[in-house]
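FW: tagging you since you asked about this chain on Friday. Here's the raw sequence from the shared folder, copied in full. Didn't touch anything.
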Amino acid sequence: MAADEKAQAKGEQAEGKVKKVVGGAVGNESLRAKGRAEESKGDLRAAKEKAKDAIKPK
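HL: got it, structure written out here
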């Protein structure tokens, strides 16, 4: 399950970055803001997974 969450985080980060760049290129501030939000959501999900891996017993 952790691999699924990590993949989802990477997908959110990538999709957010694309929306942010496209929004900036076409001057659409709404799309740019949505991209920043989605990228942040992916960053948070990735951080959560890293924290879970750090405390996982080995």
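FW: Residues 3 and 20 are 26 Å apart (CA to CA).
HL: agreed, and The chain is about 90% helix and 0% strand.
FW: great, closing this out.
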